[in-house]
Amino acid sequence: xxxxxxxxxxxxxxxxxxxxxxxxxxxxxxxxxxxxxxxxxxxxxxxxxxxxxxxxxxxxxxxxxxxxxxxxxxxxxxxxxxxxxxxxxxxxxxxxxxxxxxxxxxxxxxxxxxxxxxxxxxxxxxxxxxxxxxxxxxxxxxxxxxxxxxxxxxxxxxxxxxxxxxxxxxxxxxxxxxxxxxxxxxxxxxxxxxxxxxxxxxxxxxxxxxxxxxxxxxxxxxxxxxxxxxxxxxxxxxxxxxxxxxxxxxxxxxxxxxxxxxxxxxxxxxxxxxxxxxxxxxxxxxxxxxxxxxxxxxxxxxxxxxxxxxxxxxxxxxxxxxxxxxxxxxxxxxxxxxxxxxxxxxxxxxxxxxxxxxxxxxxxxxxxxxxxxxxxxxxxxxxxxxxxxxxxxxxxxxx
Length: 399
What we know:
This protein is of the alpha/beta class. It has helices spanning 4-7, 20-31, 51-61, 77-89, 116-124, 144-148, 160-173, 180-190, 194-205, 213-216, 228-236, 241-245, 255-269, 272-295, 301-313, 331-341, 343-356, 360-376, 380-386, 390-397, and strands at 40-44, 65-70, 98-103, 131-135, 150-154, 177-178, 210-211. The chain has a 5-stranded parallel beta sheet with strand order 2-3-4-1-5, sandwiched between helices. The chain has a two-stranded parallel sheet with strand order 6-7.
């Protein structure tokens, strides 16, 4: 008895729902492989959005023999080169073209001593066959060398209405009594993970033959450690309140980190009024954060999270479909550079303030006069009195 996730896997690309753009790109990559510049393709997207199913469906539709390898089970360079190299060297058993699927490449090791990513990069150029890889987050630092060699296609997170259609079809085939509200609940709990939604449907309905709010409510919210990139997609591309509300619940980054990522990437997705409304929500999150720091009233974290997730999400008029590569905020680096730039000035001002019984702010304003003195005099007594370093003296003597 096959699990429903296998039994109801798409048999051809036409059965893929909600991924029309990606379907066409995958088909084109396989058909034009020998003429293409890139020798491999990475399907990037959150769990359960159809990455693996799309490759399986493509192999069936285009009559390719599919070889599957799970990269997370082959983490070091030697095992990657041996397993995938053997696959590349084998002839097809059925005398048809081969398609190689490497699942979960973000599970590979990127470290120098294990080098799974490096091992995979080294075999890509040798392949006579199209290679398609899947990743939940293709833009991890350890995958940079691999991404450079590949075409990357990012799949959309499935909409609730699309997931409900699939669940309803399964219920009809299995003769399960259901109502749309219960299927909506299963879909929302899965947070865009169709595979998880089908598993939940099977748990509740395979033997009871009935899906209702009473047995669906017993399903616990699916806990997933989402990458920050997927969480940003859930907010910046999606407009579903439930998905946005839980976007930052299961990530490892702090809300302060998330704030800077949103600040950097909102302008890439939003424009016009959407941009204004998005930054308005982000500014209110910043106000809540300021009040938390001033009062230590941590209950306000709820409001900060709500403005950053739901507030930013509903600022747009509709969901976004275009591929955008999100980037880390440059603000921390800028602040560090500025901090280093003014470090000597602050250090000298602090020493001057302690001897003149003034604040550092006043001392900074008085550095102008101190610099003038160093232009015309050696100022050995001042250097000794303030205990200035050679670098600080050099800074004061610069015009």
